[in-house]
Amino acid sequence: MAKTFTISDLAREFGVTTRTIRFYEDKGLISPARKGQRRIYGPRDRVRLRLIMRGKRLGFSLDEIRPMIDLYDADPTEVAQLRLFIDKIRERRRVLDQQRKDITAILGELDTFEARCEKLLAQKGKAGKGQEKGEPRRGKRDRPGG
Prior knowledge:
The protein is mostly helical. It has helices spanning 7-14, 18-26, 43-57, 62-74, 79-124, and strands at residues 33-35, 38-40. It is elongated. Strands 1-2 form a two-stranded antiparallel sheet. It has five helices and two strands; from the N terminus they run H-H-E-E-H-H-H. Helix content is 62%, strand content 4%. The chain starts with 6 loop residues before the first helix and ends in a 22-residue tail after the last helix.
């Protein structure tokens, strides 16, 4: 007889809440057997949950994860699943590389604007005197009673 697991067993093992596991069940990603109201998870459910958690950790959406784990049941050789997974990994890597480039560019722009603002502030000299560093200057309308 195959080992079975309770929802609490799996929640503890994967570090998620039982609500999360029920959510994946509602989405049709796992399908435990039932004994009355009690859910009974088998090795298949455990493997599928492991694949879901791995996919989520890598940043895949549930819609992207579904076809990958569905292939787990359809292809016992796992060749199709591995090919799809490689394609998804490459696609994810492209997205993350672009995001990294975008972040680097934005950080460069922020450095430039910060340096310009610091230079302008230094040029204004006395105009900013009496203000705490980082505190915004108040306009006439922002002053109390103004």
